[in-house]
Structures are given as structure tokens and as C-alpha cells.
Amino acid sequence: MPTAPPGWFARLVAWLFPLVMPNDADDAPVRARALATMLRIMALFGLLAYLPSVALALWTGRWWDALVDTLVYGMVIGLARWRSLTFRLRAFALIGLCYLLAVTLLAESGAKGAGIVWLFAFAVMAAVLKGRKAAFVALGIQVLTVTVFTIAMGVGSFTWVPPEVAGSRAAESIWITVGANLVLLSLLVAMSVASLLEGLEAAVIRERASVEAHERLEGQLRQAQKLEALGTLAGGIAHDFNNLLLPILVNTAEVQAKFPPGGHEHAQLQDVLSSAGRARDLVRRILAFSRRMEVERRPVRLDEVAREVGTLLRATLPASIELVYDVEATHAVVLADPAELHQVALNLAANSSHAMRERGGTLTIRIAEADGGKTLCLTVRDTGSGMDPEVMKRAFDPFFTTKPVGEGTGLGLATVHGIVTSLGGRVTLISTPGTGTTVEVYLPRLDSEVAAPETPEANRGRTKGGRVLLVDDEPIVLRAAAAALKQQGHTVTAVVGAAEALEALAAHPSGFDVLLTDQSMPRMTGIVLAEEVRARYPGLPIILTTGFLEAETQRRAEAIGIRQLLHKPYRSEEINRAVRAAMEGTS
User: Fold this and answer.
1) Helices (DSSP H) in 290-388: which residue ranges?
2) Which residue stretches of the chain have pLDDT < 70?
3) pLDDT of 49
4) Which residue in 26, 34, 25 sits closest to 194, CA to CA?
5) Residue 468: per-residue pLDDT
6) Is there a contact between 315 and 360 (Cβ–Cβ < 8 Å)?
């Protein structure tokens, strides 16, 4: 049910004396609101006390009292109205005005006037506005004030002391009794109020932290959902893209084998293969980032990965950023997935580039030895804006970013840290505001060399040709894969879809040595076909090919004994190696 809008008087009061000032301290919201409420009440209703007090002072000829009352009331209105004043200044000013009014009234009227009440309010206001310590200080000032007034009474300094008791012990005893009760009540009320407000402040802080944590978790959940959707989209795109790359890789390799190495045609076709290979690695990096593909760790040259990232960056960096590539280590081999290393280097370089996009600078990628040669260090250094200590503390936190909304996910350094840690390495961060940032990635060095890729020529004659049942829903993939297998001496029966594969097996139960099927097919997926074939023909080796392998698919494949999983897009030598291994009973 909608609430009624505030009336004109409420709007006028809110405009004249706001409850929240622009400069109120964020760490004292309860006290700031209490101060604003006090000032509002004193400004609005203080007139009821101000007018009689001033009239009485003028009627009795006490011009000083009238002047002090007017000054205090005017200051209260100013404190309630001036928006430029800070909470600290307004709080101390109000406490001081309260004490000034108390001392003035005590000097003129003693315990018979309102001075004793304002002296009590002085301690309570100190507790409300500034806390327990301020309350203790105010109580000490109270004791000192009572003591000074007691001494002054003894020497007859006040006109309000009756002549018959002036300078006597009776007057001092009465004043000491009043003062002691005042201090006791002030102590009781001030400490109770201070404790209550401290608990309330702690509750407000906890509530604020809880709300901020909830909002942060909601943001992280939305970001995770976006990344999950991105992963699903990447998987679908990767499947189609891999099917397009596969015939390029296979057919180009077949044509290249017809030209002698060293010739112009052979070199041109090698460029095609290299470009297609980089495209394949790009798809795998996307899938690895979206966690839809298992990593394949093998010996990798760290310097080559860094050089490829540098080449990719060089085309996208603005002219104001200079790229420096420095390799000091020889035999820079680590055990990792190339896609993981690309992601690490690319994330670090992208962050450095972003830090220098306004002023420009130098981006340095360096490979060096560390720990006596047992470790390799990938250093990415920039001369950008740098980080302050608070940002550095949270730099590796997931979803933490200093970039504007829409420009960063907050996962770059968190992903780098996760990958490097999983590789048995470590990451160090060195940064100075205004100077730049250096990120050092330390990875264990591998002694073995990177194996040279097999060539189709090297595979010929190693195993006699087998009878392969090839299943895929893409005719272009079928033709390329069949050509690669036939070139190695295999007999290939290529069918489109799982239904035709089952028909071929039913017609020739013993007519095939290997079943090689794609996973992503309409109506019946490769894993369902494999389960059906395993139930009917338990001795037939099965190879499952896929653009990306989900955990559930891998679990089901392992459950029925499939040991050959071939990732698309594969090269000619990779499909032949998989068929040979299946025929020989190895994985």
C-alpha cells in the first residue's frame, strides 16, 4: 500500500534542518543522525526556552545572560542549517555550547537555575555524539567545574548565595551534595547511552557489511551465469568451427605430402597448416577458459608461447605502447597445456596494456631462469599507473576489478593464479603507484625436449591397413577423415549418422576393426551409439571424436571402456595414430 506524501510542514523542516548532512562521517551514521535530530529539536523547540529566559534576563537587568542565550540559540540554528560543516566540527561545537550555557547559568543562578540541567546534558551529549571516552572527559570536566564553584562559593564570589550562609560550611556542603548527585547521575546515564549506541553502531556496521556482501555475491552470481552462458555458446561455436577446420588441416597435409620439402608450394601449404593450427589452439583456449574442455599437459616451450602472445598483441597495441620481448633462458620447456600458458600470458599482457592506454609506455615480456636453473620465470612488466597497497591485497580475488563497469570481469589475475598454482608454480606481484606493475610467474622447468610432430610419411607402413567404420553427421568431415585414413592404407566405410552405422554393423557384424564416431550428432549422440555398439559387439574398439568433451560424456565413455578420445579438429597423423593404437590395443 503506497504511503502518503509528507505534508508541507514536514517538507519545510526537512529542507531547513536535514537529518543527514553531505559531510557526515560514513563510519558514524548513528551518531550523525543523533546529532542532526538534536539540532533539529533544539532549533525548532528551543524557542520555547529561549524567549522566557531572555525576557527574564532583560527584566532583571542581566544583559550578559540574554547575550549568551541569544548567541547559543543562534549557533544551534547555524549548526542545524549549515551543510558544509563536518560531523566532527558540529558535534564538538554543540557540546561546547552546552557547557558554555551551563557555566553561564550556574554563575548567575547557581543550583536554583537551569545551569545544573545543562551541565548534566553536557556529559550526556558527549556520550551520545563522541562515545565512551568523550563521556569520561566530560565527567572529569563536571567534577572540575563543581570543585571550582565550591571554592568560589567559599570566598563569596557569587551573589546568588544567601548572605546568612555565604562563606559557611553549609553552603559548600549543599553544593557538594548537589554536585556529587549530578556527577553520579551523569555517569549512570552517559555510560548507559554510550554502551547502547556502541552496540547499535556495531549492529549497523554488521548490517551494512552483510548487505554489501550480499550485493557482492549477487554480482558474482550474475557474472558466473554470464560466464556459464558464454561457455555454452563457446561450446556450440567450437563444434561448428572445428568441423570447418578439420578438412583444412587434413586435406592441406595430404596435398603438402605431394610436394618435396623446401619447395615453394610446400612452404605455402605449411603456412596454411600453421594458421589452421593456431586457429585450432584458439578454439581450445576458449573452451579451456569456459571449462568445457579438459586440459592436455605436455612439454611446451614457454618462449614460443610468449612469442606468439607478443605477435598477437603487437597487432592490437596502440602506437603509444612499445612491446619489448626478451628471452634470456635456453631450453625454456615446462609441462603445461599450451592453451593454459597462452591464457596466462595474454591475461597479464592485456592488464598491462590497459594500465598504459592513457599515457602509453613500455610492455616487456621476459623469459629467464630462476632458482639456479630449476625454475623458469615469465615476467610481464609495464610502466603504467601501478597499484596501491589496498588494490594489491585484492588483486587475485575473483571478481575484483578496478576497471569501469563493462570493461572487466575481475577474473584475469584470479585465473592466472589458479592456472599457475595448478602447474606447481607461483605468482608474485610488484607494483608502485605511478611507476608500473611487474608480475612474475615461476614455473618448474622440464628437462625433456618438446617432441617433434609426427608426419603422415612417418606413419606409412607401421601397421597394416584396418577396416574402419567412420561416423559423422558432417559430409565435409567424413570426406577429409576418410581421405586421411585411406592414405595410410585403411579401408574406410563412411556413414552419416548413428542409424546408418548400426545398419552397417548389422549387415557386417565382423566386417570392421575399429569404430570411429563423432560425439555431437542429431537424434543419437556418439556416446549413445558407442553404448549400443558395446552391448551388441563388445570386442569392437571404439574411438570417440569431439570438439569439446564434457565431464558426463567422459565418465560414460570410461564406463564402457572407451580409451581413445580424439579432439577435433585433428590432423592426419593424429587420426591415424589413434586408429593404430585402437587396433593394437593400446591407449
Assistant:
1) 302-314, 338-355
2) 1-28, 83, 111, 154-171, 220, 223-224, 226-228, 230-231, 234-235, 239, 282, 285-296, 398-412, 448-464, 549-551, 586-587
3) 81
4) 34
5) 94
6) no
Which amino acid is located at 95 in the chain? I
Burial class (CB in 10 A: 0-12, 13-18, 19+), 536: exposed
Q: Please state, in angstroms and rounded to a whole number, the distance separating the CA atoms of residues 389 and 391.
A: 6
- The answer to whether residues 451 and 299 touch, using CB atoms and an 8 Å cutoff, is yes
Dist CA 367 CA 319 (whole Å): 24
Place of cell 606413419: 459
Report the C-alpha gap between 75 and 91 in whole angstroms. 12
CA distances from 511 to 207, 471, 492, 507, 515 (A): 72, 15, 11, 9, 11
Pairing mode, if any, of strands 298-301 and 333-336? antiparallel
Q: Say which residue the cell 525548532 belongs to.
A: 44
pLDDT of residue 512: 93
Q: Which tens digits make up the pLDDT trace of 430-443?
A: 888 888 889 999 99
From the list 374, 406, 376, 408, the residue with the least C-alpha distance to 391 is 408
Is this model's pTM higher than 0.85 or not?
no
The pLDDT score that the predictor gives to residue 178 is: 82
Give per-residue pLDDT as tens, 150-199. Answer: 777 766 655 555 554 455 566 677 778 888 898 899 999 999 988 888 88
Contact in structure between 423 and 444 (CB atoms under 8 Å): yes
Rounded CA separation 436/517 (Å) = 52
Q: Which of 452, 507, 513, 516 has the alpha carbon at shortest distance from 484?
A: 516
Beta strands, E only, 474-560: 491-495, 514-518, 542-546
Look up residue 485 and give its three cell numbers.
585414413
Reading the block at residue 360, the C-alpha cell is: 602509453
Question: Which three three-digit cell numbers place residue 149?
Answer: 564553584
Are residues 98 and 122 in contact, defined by beta-carbon separation less than 8 angstroms? yes
Tell me the three cell numbers of residue 82. 549549515
Query: Cα 202 to chain center, whole Å?
Result: 26
Three-state secondary-structure class, residue 72 = helix
pLDDT at site 120:
92
The domains of the chain, with CATH numbers, are 8-214 (no CATH), 300-444 (3.30.565.10), 460-584 (3.40.50.2300)
